[in-house]
Amino acid sequence: MIEILNNFFNGLGAVLAIGPIAGIIAGVCVGIFFGAIPGISAIMAIAIILPLTFYVDPVIGITMLLAVYKAGIYGGSISAILINTPGAAASFLTAQDGHALTKAGKAGKALGMALYASVTGEALATLVLIFVAAPISIISLQAGPIEKVFLLIFAFTVVGSMTGESISRGILSCCIGMLFAMVGMSSITGATRFSFGVPELMSGFTFLPLLIGVLVMPEVIDAIKKRKTPHYDLILEKSPNPDDNRVTWKEYRSVFGTMLKSTGIGTFIGALPGLGSSAAAFLAYGEAKRTSRKPETFGKGSLHGIAAAESANNAVCGSSMIPMLTLSIPGDDVTALLMGAFLIHGITPGPTIFYEHTDVIYAIFAGFLITDIFLLIIARAGFSFWTKVASIQRYYIFPCVTVFAIAGAFTTNQDLYDVLILICFTVFGYGMRLIGLNPAAFIIGFILTPLLEQNLDQAVAIVGKDYGMILASPFAWIFTALSAFSVFSAMRMKKKEKKKVAAPSAPERSAS
Amino acid sequence: MSKIAKSLLAITTAVAVTLTGGAAFAEYPEKPVNVIVPWGAGGDSDLTTRLWADAMEGALGTPVVVINKAGGGGVIGTTFVASSKNDGYTLVNAGLSNVLVTPNFSKTPYDFSSFVPVVKLSSVPLGILVPADSPYKTFDDFIAAAKAGRLTQGSWGAASSGTVLASIIADQAGYDVKFVHGNTTAESMVALIGGHIDSAVSFPPAFGPHVKSGRARLLVLNQKMAEYPNVPTFADYGIKGSFEGWSGVFAPKGTPPEVIQKLVNASGKVMDEPKVRKAFENMGANVDFRHGEAWTNDMLLNYDIMKNAAAKMKQ
Predict the structure, then answer these.
(1) Nearest CA to CA, how far is A11 from chain B (Å)?
(2) In which domain, by residue range, is B114 found?
(3) Do A202 and B191 lie within an 8 Å CB cutoff?
């Protein structure tokens, strides 16, 4: 422990120099900027910056890439909160609650909560990375396809707590999402499913246009429909109460428990290679809602909702480095890219990295924490500008949203075909709204299904005819129990809500 | 012939040359060259292409822009280039998977003949690995066990280059394995060192660190590598064929030979630069600079092998 601290402070010394600090500041600015543009994801921003870092000192190059990554993830929540265009799966939960706050004139509060939760989640996960990386990575290796199947089944139960009045409609929406996820080439059989000979469909529907089409564009259509109604607000007035546009210390303290729990979930999921930030955000959000005293506020501007989604999402950033650095296993596309950056600099991630490259690796760790501080300062400085954006008249905002949506759909693969997907799913998403289906449950089904399918196939291939092996893992029992508990508590919550509606005069009871 | 006639001839020839091919391509490249990577940002092919493109800017005197056009298992971006203008300003990152394997396994709007090969940049030999605590110490042990019982092997997708190569190997050695498909080479290594599968096929960038740390044992490789002097090759076991992943650059069919030559020359220059070689080597990829007819013929031979394998696997 003393040795780790000693190395860490040496690293801190190495990072606190002009080169690395300049790299971090540049990285944070670039990351926030690219992240805030819908359609440019953190990974694209890193790929664009990557060649710049080939020939500089690894400490500067890698800390800069990480700054882009972290700031990019936070940047994605800015557009999600202000104009309801999430750039990634994980920030779509932030959009749910954050944009509801923006509509209530509290954009500053939502932005603040997202930033503080992001930084808290990231910093805590980084501390875990620095101090207990090695033991965690050994545990994470034990989780194979069989264990992941059960973990994913547990993640699916989040649908129960995501849906509104009707659980059956939520499940139906989720199933439709699962069906759409089937389109494209199956990695298991190599067969192309539901592509009808269209080569563009061979890898399935592109995620971003689908997400924006289902979640964002119906909002725009709704605004057009309502424009002539007298009560329709053209301007989202910024709330006059200054406390409504910042996060008070009391509020931060009240969500701190949620953040700790969500960071824990995010760190755990992040350390398991291959599940990614969206599964972590779903689980943390569902858990926060389940244990909340006011679950009905989730999706309607709950600070706990933002805190849970953002801290879990960002904790994944830190902890996905654990398997990458200690075992040279990249858990997702971003860590794969970062691992490439390490390799290009001649640093091979793996258990020996801490001995062979002690100076570099601890300097990079220190850089992680310094990045959090700069992210906090730089992003905080932008708030007054961002909240002004939120109070622009809506007839300027919505055309801009439409342009961003189309541009975002196009940039992912530079393909006009993706714009067509956007248009089709806009119609589809609006139709879902009209008949009361739940777009969030649809997205969950769409995101989790490929993961479940692949892990299930791997599990089946591994056990062969020995089906008992599937239930031999203790993980299987733990997650099955958790899933059952989650389903049970979602149903109990629904019952209580019904009672409340039935007897509105009855004294309100705590729902926990 | 009189002096005047001679000089007239010279002038007309010069003018003719300038007016035809010469005029259009004399200044190639006069604008930025785009290289389409048919994969998402961050993969091995993306990184090698970016390293090359970055260095080419100096040699060509114009920016070489890498554009990721992912989707359709590499088909979308590759198709895009196949149907692009053949003026040398749109190139594609070609590799085993998108130009040799996929056209044989799926209906693609292009095939090998839709392109002119420009250069091969790097290659990585395929290897077969087992976990460190596996009872199979040699490839012979492995073959015997796979013949006797049911062994699992990690790969990355049923129609992927890994599974095709592994199937060809298994077919020649006369054993059978049950494939466990991840999305990437890295994912199958996770399952391998976690002890969830019996074996895996993979490339040095993905398996190198695990072999060095002693978590995985490399049984056999496509070719001898300095890092693994004691590891036998497939040829040692009588298995014929080239089992390597590679990354290169193709141009659309009909791209003028002068343009191709210019790209080949510039690539030759940059692939000789020590810092570029070093960057490739750090990634675990061997610089394997090839161009011209011999290389194309090698690829055509492999294309036919893939075609036969595809026919066999589809049965």
Answers:
(1) 24
(2) 33-123+243-314
(3) no
